[in-house]
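Re: [help] complex structure
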Amino acid sequence: LAKTTQPISMDSYEGQEVNITCSHNNIATNDYITWYQQFPSQGPRFIIQGYKTKVTNEVASLFIPADRKSSTLSLPRVSLSDTAVYYCLVGVGANNLFFGTGTRLTVIP
Amino acid sequence: SAVISQKPSRDICQRGTSLTIQCQVDSQVTMMFWYRQQPGQSLTLIATANQGSEATYESGFVIDKFPISRPNLTFSTLTVSNMSPEDSSIYLCSVWGRGFQETQYFGPGTRLLVL
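Output below.
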């Protein structure tokens, strides 16, 4: 079971780019890297998923180095509404089920 | 994506009673899961709800305490039995599969307070 390590918390000012790094040294060959966002009193929401290199969607970018032992979620120009907990998971298909501690991002006006 | 609803959205229960939480999906899904999220904590997987057979429980969770049903591909229930204040948590269902990308989709959660 691949384990992930993230910073417990981060603060950022509005309008800044935020990068949250996740370590997953034991990632398996077939594992994907998936990031979720969770607001208070809501279920986690899928943000982005990748296998290698870089993935970008309308919400975020995901950078994965060649060794895949870490990944970085990049949120461009954060706003107050991006204040949430961000979780990194590694796994494949229905084995991508185990949440780590997550990173609590606080965006400051 | 999938639209997932849970009932009830919240409840306050007395110690020793049981509560059944329902999870309904708007389309057929391959797999359904139940999680618990204690206050201020991350999510912990309780079990995988298997259609037509007994659920698969994670370490630390047992069927007598958390019986689960999954009668079809769009519905599942989780019962929290003989509740104590330590069971106060948010309970979330999630789904995976059947045309979705390789990720889960979560319901809104059921907030349970046991007095």
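The first strand of chain A starts at residue 9 and ends at 13.
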